Amino acid sequence: MPTVSIRKCPSYGEAERAIMTAIDDLGGMTHLISPGDSVLIKPNMLGAYRPESNVTTHPDVVRAVARMVLDCGGRPVIGDSPGIDPFPLVSARTGIGEVGKTLGVPVLPLTDSIPVAAKEGGKFRKIELSRIAVESDKIINIPKMKTHCQMTLTLGVKNLFGTVVAQRKAEWHYKVGLDRDVFASLLVEIWDHLRPCLTVMDGVWGMEGRGPSNGRGRHFGIISASDDALAMDQVLSPLMGVKERDFPLLRAARATGKILEDVRKSGDAIAPFVPRVDLPKSDSLRLLPSWMDRIGKTFLSSRPTQDVKKCIGCQKCVQVCQARAINMGPDKVLSFDYDRCIRCYCCHEMCPVDAIKLQKGAILRVLDLLGRG
Q1: 142-158 pLDDT, tens digit each
Q2: Is 166 helix (H, G, I), strand (E, B) or coil?
Q3: Which domain does 338 fall in, by range?
Q4: Is residue 278 assigned to a domain?
Q5: What's CA 313's distance to the chain center, in Å?
Q6: To 5 degrees, how large is the angle CA 280–CA 281–CA 287?
Q7: Does residue 251 share a domain with residue 343?
Q8: In this structure, is residue 184 part of a structural domain?
Q9: Which of 134, 144, 184 is nearest to 164 (CA)?
Q10: What are the residues whose beta carbons fall under 8 Å from the beta carbon of 32, sequence distance 6 or more?
């Protein structure tokens, strides 16, 4: 039976002790890592964000986990695959590069995709993941506790999408289109392929609202550890006010028979967070059959728009759009081809200055007005 431990941790100065205690609840790091094991430590390194932005895994959490692996005689490598920003800049800005330098642990971009064998009953015949992730003896997953505009939350399982190399992430968004449940099935299959031996959640400070990068910092004050990332998601999502039926990832796990009926909980008693976590509006979920996608895109789903005053003209939105639905003209003005747009919201996710807004579909705007009346 998988175990999920949650420990109170008011500040990052107390993170190392909280992490050690949470991992001890699982049997200790020596129970998970043997001398000589090659270990990929996979934090959230979404982009070139400073720790105080609450977008990426805090370097103090990465440092504590890496030290524990070294103490066990493991051979750790810290790695991720940011979507757009150059890896050296991400490594430096997040503070994770300095952690590696101080501890003598390599901090590397996840490159060199290799195919993994299709799982029986899986939806996807071909998935390519980073060679380092596939061939490491062990994986330690260190996500950040955040909301997510497309997937509602990004917790333990979603963080493993970072083992998909660079631009292939956007390609997957393009392949699955408007259907969040199909994308969630992909995430579940990636987790099932990799099965990290340990997931440590950085929930000291996380994010609410329009995450994963443009929301607001939220102090959750916890560290969580589990020997099963899916079990962690099952335990943490209700604390954040999300029921299984409203969480695409857990719906996909249930549909594929992966949901866990028995999870052992350990650690401190943590009540659901009050005031409630500000969740992104789930207005672009699959509400219509696939042959009505055009209607759904036009009248139900949110569409990206530009805040010209905030835009700095970096064109990351243009670069990440696999549908080629965004162009930048003179004076940094964006044009959107909404017929081509697949509503993956990668443009919103990768914008470093929150200049891509999400405007609700027409029907939902009308319903909002009626609700206010």
Answers
A1: 999 999 988 999 999 99
A2: coil
A3: 290-372
A4: no
A5: 26
A6: 135
A7: no
A8: yes
A9: 134
A10: 23, 26, 138, 197, 198, 227
Tell me what pLDDT residue 297 has. 53
**pTM listed for this prediction:** 0.87
Q: Sign of dihedral through CA atoms 192, 193, 199, 202?
A: negative
Q: Give strand pairing partners of 267.
A: 6
Q: How far apart are CA 43 and CA 201, in angstroms?
A: 9
Buried b or exposed e, range 137-150, using 16+ CB within 10 angstroms: ebbbbbbbbbbbbb
Bridge partner list, 225: 5, 200
Identity of the amino acid at 163: T
Nearest to 105 by CA among 95, 96, 92: 96
Which residue in this structure is represented by tokens 């980073």?
A: 130
Is 281 domain-assigned? Answer: no
- Summarize pLDDT for 42-94 with one digit per residue, the tens: 999 999 999 999 999 999 999 999 999 999 999 999 999 997 899 999 999 99
* pLDDT score for 294: 54
The closest alpha carbon to 205, from 52, 31, 370, 25, belongs to 52
- Paired strand residues for 4: 226, 265
For residues 200 and 339, state if they share a domain: no
Residues 6+ apart with CB under 8 A from 268: 6, 7, 8
From residue 12, how far is each of 60, 172, 203 by CA, in Å? 7, 34, 10
Could you tell me the CATH number of the domain that includes residue 254?
3.40.50.11440
Same domain for 225 and 336?
no
Query: Quick one: residue 52, left, alpha or beta (phi over 0 = left, psi -120 to 50 = alpha)?
Result: alpha
- Between CA 172 and CA 163 the distance in angstroms is 13
Rg (CA), the chain: 20
Burial class (CB in 10 A: 0-12, 13-18, 19+), 343: buried
